[in-house]
Structures are given as C-alpha cells and as structure tokens.
Specification:
The protein has about 575 residues and is mainly α. Helix content is about 70%, strand content about 0%. The protein is built from 27 helices and no strands. Helix 7 packs across helix 16, helix 14 crosses helix 15 and helix 21 packs antiparallel against helix 22. The longest helix is centred in the last third of the chain and has 36 residues. The chain is globular.
Length: about 575
C-alpha cells in the first residue's frame, strides 16, 4: 500500500506537511481572527505567535525531511542559487560569531534561504493544494479587510493585506476554464476599485501598479521567445536594479520611503558591499545615518526595522551576496516558462509579492514571505521529483524534533507577547503596578525582546523613578544589538542624569541627538542637563539659542515645545514642509 502511495505521489505525511506549512503563514497574529466578526481587539498586533525565526526552523525541518539532495546537481538554476545560499550562510555565521546578530537573526536568515527549498521539496503536494489554498487565503484576506479598520486585515498592515489579496485571488478562478482569465481580471478590478472608493487613503498604490506589471511580465515570458530567454530575463532585472540604485544615489526627493532608501545607501557606503550588517540589524545601524530631510516628511517614525525595499533590505544585511541571492531566486523561479497552470499560479504569486516588496518588505514577514518564497520554490522545483515517498526514520526523527522546538518557541513567544499586550492595556487603564508586573514576566520569558525591554525601562524610569533598573534594562537592549531602538539613548541619558552622572548623560544624549537631530525634547533636555551640570555660561547660551532656532525650523514656539509629547515630537510640525511627500 505504501509503495503504491509513494509511486502516485500521495504521501499523507508530505501532504500534511505541505498543508501545515502554508497554514502556518497565516498564524503570525492569531488575535486578528477575533476581528473577523467585526468586533474590536485592541493591540492585537502585539501578540505574535508564528514568527520569522519559527518559520526558519520549520523550513529546516521540511528540507531535512523531504528535500531531494540531487536537485542542485541536476538543475543549473539551483546550482547558482546554491552558491548564493552558501554565501549567505557563511555571512550569517560570521555575523553571529562577531556578536552582530542573535540566534533569532540567524534563524530568520534560515527562513530566507530554506523556504524556497521547502517549496521545491514539497512541490507535488503544494501544487495540488495551491489553487484551493490561494482561494481560501484570498477570501480570508478580503473578509479580514472588510471587517477591520482601514482594511488592515489579518496582517495588521493594509499594504501587506492588499498585496496578499491581489496575489491569491487567481486561485479562486483556477477551475473556470477559458473564463479563468477574464473572471480573475474582473475580480481584481472590482475589488480594488471598491477598496479605493471605500478606503481612498489606504488603497495600496504599489499593488495597483504591480498587478498589471506582473501580468505583463508573465505574458511576455510565456509568449515572447527570444533566442536565450534566461539571458534576457537576467539582463532585464540587472538593468532595473542598476537604474533603481542609480536613482537612489543621485536623486533626493522629500518622500519618507525615498529618504529611508537614502539612509540605506549611507549604511551600505559605511559598511561596504562585502558583508552587510546581518539580518535584523538595519534599524539599529541606520538610525544615525538617515538624512535630515526625512524628519520633515509626513511619515517620519522613531524606528525603522527595514528600508521598505526588498533589494536594499538584502544589500544592507548581506552586501553583494544579498543582491546576488535575490537575483538567483528570481532566475530560479522565472528562468523557465511555466510548464503547467499551477506553476504559472506560483510564478504569479511570487512575482506580484516581489514587485510589492520594492516599496515595502514582504519576504521578511511571516505571511507574505511564507507565500512568496514557497511559491518561488514551487515554480523552480523539478517537475518530477525523484521520490515523493514518506521520509524514513533518519529524516523523520530530526524533523519532528525541529518541529517540536519551533512549536515550543512559538507558544513561549506568544505567552510573553500576551503578557506584554495585557501590560499595555493596563497602562492605558492607569494601572502602573499591574503593567510593571506583566512587563517583568514578559521580559523574563523573552529576554531579548526590544519592545518589552524598552517599555519596561521607560516605565521603571518615568513612573517608578528607578534609574538603576532602567539602565540595566537598557544594557540588555544594547547587548541584543538595539542600543538605538526608538529613543533608548534618551532614556539612558535621563537615567544617568537622575543618578547625578551628567557626563554619561550628556554622552548618551549626543548619540540620541545624532539619531534625531530635530527633536525639540532632546534640545530641551540638552539645555537642562548643561544647566544642572554647571556648564560654562557660553555653552548654556549656545544650547538655548540652538533650541530657539530649532523651534523656528519646526514651526512652533518655545512654549509649544515644552508641551510636546514624544509621539508629536517625532512628527514634522513645520507648515513649510506640509504636503511635500
């Protein structure tokens, strides 16, 4: 019976693994499912369950159990991809050995390079369920968008929700025969036209542009047959990447994303193109390198986990090897014409999400990355794998242990984040004692969670006047490579000042002001620290004049600056910059 099952490719073990892998991509924010009935679930985005590191561990389990190890020898596209995967693996180990990243960053890198291999390893089973899974996923994205504010949906971000909706809609019309294409196009136009009418400020412009562009590229890939289509494809993507990087280096537009791209350019220039800074380090490293114009754009923020561009994200993480990996992945997924309708659907999902990732980051997210990387593997995988039988004990036992480890980490992380969510709700309700207790419990489970450590340090310092405790928490934050997380340097300056260590406070504030050069709160704090430390009168006068000039630039008075909240301080106030984005 098992032999017959193996020959027909109907292994229940493999089919279950494929279904669980695609299903896990929707479980990043499980509390979001409570909103499907239209009810409210405040702070649902703080309670994460399946994370990118967990997906990395699950991808390793799938590869260990099911991968055909001869694929790299049989397919030149996979040999090129293998070279780039090996380069990223070595760079990840180097970053880890130097303390630049934590094990979670390494696991995130594993997700990036192993998810496509998992897609290829489970290709027969994934292809079989892909249309149904895509249709169900599209319905889920649409339903979650309609029942949430601003179409944020299950992902908590309207851009990600709409990108996934656009990518998965064709699955609903997969069995419509000759009507499949017109029905799919009509559904896309009607749904996104309605979103643009109902939520005009939240319609994703990137998705609207990416849909016809992806369709045109796939049509050209299938219909046009140049002498060497792979060479044309590679040359086209290299040309587009070169043009994009040239524009970023040469232009200077008053747009939030573009200025963040300029910061990524400064980061690449500072670190060189050979090694990058490692997965998850972008926000911490780019903080002092963001151009000043960024702080006068409408969407200026205090923390930037990624540069809102897939190519720049990989270049800053791994240097030239990151760009080479992205090109090799595109070559593997799109380097040959789709040999079946299911492969074409996989190419569509990958290409559309890839295009959307050029003004955001998709592959670094659980849901978008899970679908994009898996579909790349499906499109690139061999048409007839050597074996589709269930794995033997030598593969099964280690894979099961990895799955159990990933499940334990997911549950553990979810419990800590639930405590963090309850702590935030307690703060909103004015219960500082309960908030501190829950923060401490969350920090004990997730010792490197930057959000938990930062908020607990702020609570200890501001609400309980415990500077030593706050400093210890901020040291833990710095040990995890997050010393520039949000306004951590400002908190450190305040904690040192409350202990009477003004030289240390001024040193921390100098770092903070380099990260946020137009912060009125930082300028006022600088003046207060100089006065308290008994600095020379000339320095105090200069600091006072600097604060006055900054208020003029920000378009406010000194009295208004004294009333600023941290959230308002991070946003541009000056009317001469309004509407420039």
């Amino acid at each position: 019976m098992m032999k017959a099952t193996a020959e027909t490719g109907l292994s229940w073990t493999r089919s279950l693994a494929a279904a669980c892998w695609l299903g896990a991509a929707f479980l990043a924010l499980p509390l979001a499912f409570a909103r499907l009935g239209g009810g409210r679930m405040p702070l649902f985005g703080t309670a994460e369950f399946v994370t990118v590191p967990v997906m990395g561990i699950m991808a390793l389990a799938a590869v260990w159990a099911f991968a055909d190890r001869t694929i790299y020898r049989r397919d030149p596209r996979w040999r090129l991809l293998a070279v780039m995967q090996a380069a990223i693996t070595l760079l990840t180990l180097w970053h880890w050995s130097r303390g630049m990243i934590t094990w979670r960053g390494a696991a995130g890198a594993g997700f990036l390079i192993l998810a496509p291999v998992a897609g290829a390893a489970l290709k027969p089973e994934l292809e079989r369920i892909l249309p149904v899974a895509a249709a169900l996923g599209a319905g889920l994205m649409l339903w979650s968008g309609l029942t949430s504010e601003n179409f944020t949906g299950l992902t908590g971000n309207w851009n990600w929700t709409q990108a996934l909706l656009a990518a998965l809609i064709p699955g609903a019309f997969f069995r419509a025969g000759k009507w499949r294409l017109p029905l799919g196009i009509a559904a896309e136009v009607l749904i996104f036209g309605w979103i643009g009418w109902k939520y005009p400020g939240q319609l994703s412009r990137t998705v609207v542009i990416a849909m016809p562009l992806a369709a045109l590229l796939l049509w050209g890939r299938r219909k046009l047959r140049p002498h060497n289509p792979t060479a044309w494809l590679t040359a086209a993507f290299l040309f587009l990447a070169a043009v994009f990087l040239a524009v970023v280096f040469a232009a200077d537009w008053a747009d939030s994303r573009f200025q963040l791209w300029k910061g990524a350019e400064n980061l690449m220039t500072s670190v060189g193109w050979a090694t990058g800074y490692g997965m998850g380090q972008f926000g911490n490293r780019v903080a002092p390198l963001i151009p000043e114009l960024y702080f006068f754009t409408p969407f200026a923020a205090s923390w930037h986990p990624h540069p809102h561009n897939e190519l720049l994200h990989l270049l800053t993480a791994y240097g030239a090897a990151g760009g080479g990996f992205l090109l090799a992945l595109i070559y593997a997924a799109l380097g040959r014409r789709a040999r079946s309708d299911r492969e074409l659907l996989a190419q569509w999902v990958f290409l559309l999400l890839l295009l959307c990732g050029q003004t955001d980051v998709v592959c670094a997210t659980v849901c978008g990355g899970g679908w994009a990387l898996t579909c790349a593997g499906i499109a690139a995988g061999p048409r007839r794998p050597r074996s589709s039988a269930a794995p033997g004990p030598g593969r099964t036992i280690p894979a099961v242990l990895l799955v159990l480890a990933g499940a334990f980490l997911a549950v553990n992380h979810f419990a800590a984040r639930l405590d963090y969510r309850r702590a935030q709700l307690a703060l909103i309700g004015g219960d500082d004692i309960r908030a501190a207790r829950l923060h401490l419990r969350a920090a004990a489970v997730r010792e490197d969670d930057p959000e938990v450590l930062y908020d607990l340090a702020e609570l200890e310092l501001i609400r309980f006047n415990a500077p030593e405790s706050a400093e210890n928490l901020l040291r833990r934050l710095a040990a995890g490579g997050r010393e520039n997380y949000r306004h951590a340097q400002r908190l450190l300056a305040l904690a040192s000042a409350r202990r009477g260590d003004y030289p240390a406070a001024l040193a921390a504030l100098r770092r903070e002001r380099k990260n946020f050069p137009f912060s009125a709160i930082n300028a006022r704090l600088h003046l207060a620290l100089l006065t308290a430390a008994g600095a020379p009168e000339a320095e105090i006068r200069y600091a006072r004049a600097e604060l006055t000039a900054l208020c003029v630039v920000r378009g406010m008075s000194l009295e208004q600056a004294a009333l600023l909240t941290p959230a308002a301080d991070d946003r541009p106030l000056s009317p001469q910059f309004a509407g420039r984005d």
